[in-house]
Design goal:
Keywords: Hydrolase. The chain is an alpha/beta fold. The protein has one domain: Aminopeptidase, CATH 3.40.630.40. Bound molecules: zinc ion (ZN). The site of zinc ion has 5 residues, from loops.
Length: 243
């Protein structure tokens, strides 16, 4: 009975706090907190680069789109007071000469993971563009590792925001056991920002303004995540010691 009471009370506070965090943009006054020394660090990983173009459609290359949107994302997050670490900031990848195919890909990803794991980043956003044999597929999707609750929460918030992009296919977040999500130690989300294989979406992905909008939506999702995290940390601070 006692346990049930505690559980009910905790659930009650969680529901209330999540509602406060969601309903009040800026809860936790994040802009002010972030100006203090020790601002949270976010790692951003623009997929592919160099000889690895990722998805290709004519002369449109995924690696270029990834870099453009990640630079915009960096700017938006920095404007909100976060510190940002990019795993690449130009047209290259981290594989060494002499490696080929899967071996090179694995080396590149391992180097990126080393950068992320040693960066003191609190969360990771790895950004890609999708492609499928069926060109009807479209829309942006956020993926999380199935064992990461924080990763799932972050992905859900990002997905929620992406669903508000005008005329976008409204998708749900999904879990994934991709190499990057399996090997990073922090809550991580893989954002596939759209399908290059869909002609209508390809046009959008070539538009810098559209990429900026997607970057803003991802930023809004990150802010919601931090708002709830801040609310939770406040609640834990005020809980009775023997609770
Ligand atoms: Zn990719």
């Amino acid at each position: 009975m006692h346990k049930r009471f505690i559980l009910t009370t905790v659930m009650f506070f969680l529901v209330i706090l999540s509602q406060i965090a969601i309903a009040s943009p800026g809860y936790g006054n994040y802009g002010i907190i972030a100006q203090a020394p020790g601002s949270p660090i976010i790692a951003i990983d623009p997929g592919h680069g160099g000889y690895d173009p990722g998805a290709v459609s004519g002369n449109v290359l995924e690696k270029d789109i990834n870099l453009i949107i990640c630079k915009k994302l960096k700017e938006h997050l920095e404007n909100k007071g976060f510190l940002v670490v990019l795993t690449r900031n130009g047209d290259y990848n981290h594989a060494i000469k002499g490696l080929h195919g899967k071996e090179a890909k694995r080396y590149d990803l391992t180097e990126r993971i080393k950068i992320i794991n040693s960066s003191n980043a609190e969360i990771l956003l790895t950004v890609h563009v999708n492609s499928n044999n069926k060109n009807a597929y479209e829309g942006a999707e956020a993926f999380y590792h199935p064992k990461s609750l924080n990763g799932k929460m972050l992905a859900n918030y990002i997905q929620e925001e992406l669903r508000t992009v005008p005329e976008i296919r409204k998708r749900l977040s999904k879990n994934s056991k991709c190499f990057m999500l399996c090997n990073t130690k922090i809550p991580a989300v893989l954002v596939e920002i759209g399908y290059l294989s869909n002609p209508r979406e390809q046009k959008k992905l070539e538009d810098p303004q559209y990429l900026d909008l997607i970057a803003q939506k991802i930023t809004a999702g990150v802010l919601k995540y931090y708002d709830l995290k801040t609310a939770w940390e406040h609640m834990v601070t005020f809980l009775p010691l023997n609770f």
